[in-house]
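Module 6 notes. Inverse folding takes a fixed backbone as the condition and produces residue identities as the prediction. Think of it as a translation problem where the source language is geometry and the target language is the twenty amino acids. Below is one complete input and output pair. Work through it position by position during the lab.
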């Protein structure tokens, strides 16, 4: 078990809970709220009215505390479920204690970690949590009319994340985006309650500044905020940060990404950094950058002159469900919702084209509970472990170095020859040794680690089925015949519910590392898989690629050879390469009945009848 970092525990205030209910306003003008002191008896504390009986009867009272290992109160979330584990309505006064609690029907976040609220009578299973680095606490509670039930949770900071900070780069509010349900106070309280340390405000076409709200809540030591903007335009939704909250916003009618990105890059800010450009949910229905600006999902090439490659990161995981990870073109037992293609595969395609972008994952939260902030989140190396002292310039530099990973649970440490994610490493005799360590809090499942080389899964490592914090720690040797890149995918099969409640499908633990690029032949020049495919075809007399694919064991490279042969003019290869999923029939569930993977397999089979592959 890992010990908690003392620097991550921030105690704010030492007085009684205030009786006043403060309306949201210009928080910088308000004194920080008073809160219960450690060890204070809550029986005399102010009771916040979170439940009012709708028809007769009387409410019960729920006194709670969330403590760390040393017995100090900490921010967190309290979640109620019924005997079947289903969400249940316990609260109906969402505005109670607006500078201390963020309340919804079945759960609330607490900034101080201690308090007393009214609640609907009933018998519940109650959970205390504080994000994916901490343990959880479970307790059965019966709330009776006119009586007080007590709940005391002691959580452990299980996952050792020293040297890393957690960040959510895609967050919105009802206040400034006009939809969802989280006001400014609730946004900050919910973020701190989930253990998010860096928050980027990205309301639609608005430069939102969280700092006045954080000061008003007395929470400056608990989180660092960055002003951003989800620039929502006809060609998609694009995040930009860091920005100056007093500067004009970009043109919301922009249709040319080249001009838009140039404008964003030139924006000044107090950190002195060139703003980061992130593609939000780039395959999400009609607001997808790849679809609207034009990126072919098979070839990874732009199809319109409105497309710009001048971005830094792309969301491979979006919202609690992790939209973008699963291949939306394949049939699943669950829905992929409005996702048209797999962003994970788009990212692989771009990497194979030699373009180096960081994969990120963000909650896209604009609600307090129905889509929780911080799931997924990103971990970025940091010179400080204090949430209120994070260097934003350092974070932007790490994103541009691709030294970051995104997760819905597992904590991934990955290096090759001591070099981190984003580095380029020379192989020794065509082999590299991967150092892998996977941690996970005791309530999070972890089943396998997939090693991906240039888009091909070359190894699947079973993770021991314990709930020890360190689930896997080992080295693995990977041999490469050609230059390429290596990514880790970490997966669990058990839902994160009820801590992260299931929606249209189970919310599963997933983590994605960023690549380490491998110079396999050690010549000092890294050659992309696409450049390799073009070179292979150029050296052949066979314009169809027949015979070439038979000698290529890597499935993705074989598919790239088919595409390169089509570019060269091979009729058979061109016929298959010109097929596009956009016009293919869709199944009743809304997913494409013919997949990108199927296209690649068919193309390879046609140009190489003796070849077969399980993955395109």
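Target side of the pair, the amino acids:
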């Amino acid at each position: 078990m890992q010990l908690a970092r003392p620097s991550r525990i921030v105690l704010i205030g030492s007085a009684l809970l205030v009786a006043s209910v403060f309306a949201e306003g210009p928080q910088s003008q308000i004194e920080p709220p008073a809160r219960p002191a450690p060890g204070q008896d809550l029986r005399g504390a102010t009771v916040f009215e979170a439940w009012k009986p709708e028809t007769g009867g009387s409410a019960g009272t729920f006194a709670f505390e969330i403590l760390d290992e040393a017995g100090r109160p900490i921010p967190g979330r309290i979640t109620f479920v019924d005997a079947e584990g289903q969400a249940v309505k316990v609260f109906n006064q969402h505005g109670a204690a607006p500078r201390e609690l963020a309340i919804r029907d079945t759960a609330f976040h607490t900034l101080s970690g201690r308090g007393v609220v009214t609640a609907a009578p009933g018998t519940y299973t109650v959970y205390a949590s504080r994000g994916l680095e901490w343990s959880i606490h479970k307790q059965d509670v019966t709330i009776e009319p006119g009586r007080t039930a007590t709940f005391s949770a002691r959580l452990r900071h299980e996952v050792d994340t020293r040297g890393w900070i957690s960040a959510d780069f895609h967050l919105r509010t009802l206040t400034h985006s006009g939809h969802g349900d989280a006001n400014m106070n609730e946004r900050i309280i919910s973020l701190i309650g989930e253990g998010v340390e860096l928050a980027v405000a990205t309301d639609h076409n608005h430069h939102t500044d969280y700092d006045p709200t954080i000061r008003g809540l007395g929470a400056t030591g608990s989180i660092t905020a960055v002003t951003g903007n989800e620039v929502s335009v006809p060609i998609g939704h694009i995040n930009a940060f860091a920005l100056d909250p007093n500067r004009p916003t970009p043109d919301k009618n922009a249709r040319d990404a080249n001009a838009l990105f140039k404008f964003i890059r030139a924006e000044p800010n107090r950190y002195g950094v060139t703003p980061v450009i992130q593609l939000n949910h780039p395959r999400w229905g009609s607001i997808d950058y790849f679809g609207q600006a034009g990126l072919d999902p098979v070839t990874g090439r732009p199809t319109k002159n409105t497309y710009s490659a001048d971005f830094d990161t792309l969301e491979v995981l979006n919202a609690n469900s992790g939209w973008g990870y699963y291949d939306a073109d394949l049939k699943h037992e669950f829905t992929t919702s409005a996702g048209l293609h797999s962003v994970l595969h788009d990212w692989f395609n771009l990497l194979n084209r030699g373009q180096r972008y960081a994969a990120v994952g963000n909650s896209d939260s604009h609600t307090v509970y129905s889509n929780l902030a911080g799931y997924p989140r990103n971990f970025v190396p940091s010179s400080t472990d204090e949430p209120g002292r994070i260097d934003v310039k350092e974070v932007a530099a790490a994103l541009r170095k691709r030294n970051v990973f995104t997760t819905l649970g597992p904590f991934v440490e990955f290096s090759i020859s001591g070099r981190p994610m984003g580095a380029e490493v020379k192989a020794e005799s065509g082999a590299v040794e991967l150092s892998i360590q996977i941690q996970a809090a005791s309530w999070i499942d972890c089943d396998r680690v997939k090693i991906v080389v240039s888009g091909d899964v070359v190894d699947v490592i079973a993770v021991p089925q314990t709930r020890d914090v360190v689930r896997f720690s080992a080295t693995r040797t990977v041999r490469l015949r050609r230059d390429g890149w290596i990514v880790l995918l970490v997966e669990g099969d058990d839902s994160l519910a009820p801590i992260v409640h299931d929606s249209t499908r189970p919310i599963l633990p997933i983590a994605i590392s960023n690549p380490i690029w491998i110079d396999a032949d050690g010549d000092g020049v890294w050659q992309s898989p696409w450049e390799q495919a073009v070179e292979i075809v150029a050296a052949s007399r066979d314009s169809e690629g027949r015979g070439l694919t038979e000698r290529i064991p890597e499935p993705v490279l074989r598919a790239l050879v088919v595409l390169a042969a089509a570019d060269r003019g091979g009729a058979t290869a061109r016929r298959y390469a010109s097929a596009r999923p956009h016009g293919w029939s869709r199944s009743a569930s809304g997913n494409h009945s013919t997949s990108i993977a199927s296209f690649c397999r068919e193309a390879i089979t046609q140009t190489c009848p003796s070849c077969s592959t399980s993955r395109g």
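Reference fact for the lab report: The chain has eleven helices and 26 strands.
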